[in-house]
Amino acid sequence: MISRNVPDSWQALQTEVGRILHECGFDVEVEKKTQAVRGAVELDVYAEETVRGRKYAIVCECKYWKSRIPQNVVHGFRTVVQDIGANIGYIISMEGFQSGAISASDLTNLKLVTWQEFQDIFEESWYEGFFTNQIHERLSSLMTYAEPFAPTWFEQMSDEDKSTYFALRDKYEPFAWVMQSLGPYSRRFRANPIPQLPLRMRLDADPTLGTIPAHILDETGYRELLEASLAYGEAALSEFRVLRDRYTS
Q1: Which residues on neighbouring strands pair with residue 41, listed in sequence order?
Q2: Where in the chain is the domain with CATH 3.40.1350.10?
Q3: Domain 10-120 classification at class level
Q4: DSSP H or E run through 85
Q5: What is the pLDDT of residue 97?
Q6: What are the contacts of 23-32 at 24+ separation with CB within 8 A?
Q7: Which of 26, 116, 206, 239 could form an SS bridge with 47, CB 3.0 to 4.6 Å?
Q8: Is 248 exposed, middle or buried (0-12, 13-18, 19+ CB in 10 A)?
Q9: What is the percentage of the chain residues whose pLDDT exceeds 90?
Q10: How would DSSP label each residue in 155-200?
């Protein structure tokens, strides 16, 4: 799943839906006011991308209701989606839909989904377009310190700093390799589905992973894994750079 956290209000649901679509590469507006055929309307989330000169538009209606969504909501939203010429409309409900609502969406360009189902639809696109790129952009430098070859300034270091450097490399090398396995270049040559979480499920047999914090190995949401990994990895980079700056500044 993209995130294990559940929105706690309709505003949070709108924000999180828009955030996912933005991170998937869409231009997004939350609470967008626009003119439709039958008058002015406000859209909870409007997302648009242009692929090879063709516009693709998504409209989302976010329902943070404590009951299942009835069919009249579907009828009303279908009219809005048609009037503004969107390609597809999503109604996202925290509690599901009445049977009449599901029937009303048949043979239309509407998708009735829960919060989890919405995440499932965009998970692969989000992972490929956002998660892997964030790992690369912000943590790829860690590999230059964790790889077996010492940096050019290594020979200038004192014996004490060399010991510190090797200790840091031993500590962070397993983490750096795991992050590289989650980056865009590793994914480019694989046709398999995105790796499942938690990481411990497929990595626990490796005895070198004991230096990776448990909260990273046991995380079940990709957004939370990304946030925890970036915080840990950037702290690691800071430790290496303290040494580097003593001999390159």
Answers
A1: 34
A2: 10-120
A3: alpha beta
A4: none
A5: 97
A6: 23/126, 23/129, 23/130, 24/122, 24/125, 24/126, 24/129, 24/130, 25/49, 25/125, 25/129, 26/58
A7: 26
A8: exposed
A9: 73
A10: GGS-HHHHHHHHHHHHHHHHHHHHHHHTSHHHHHT--SPPPPS-TH
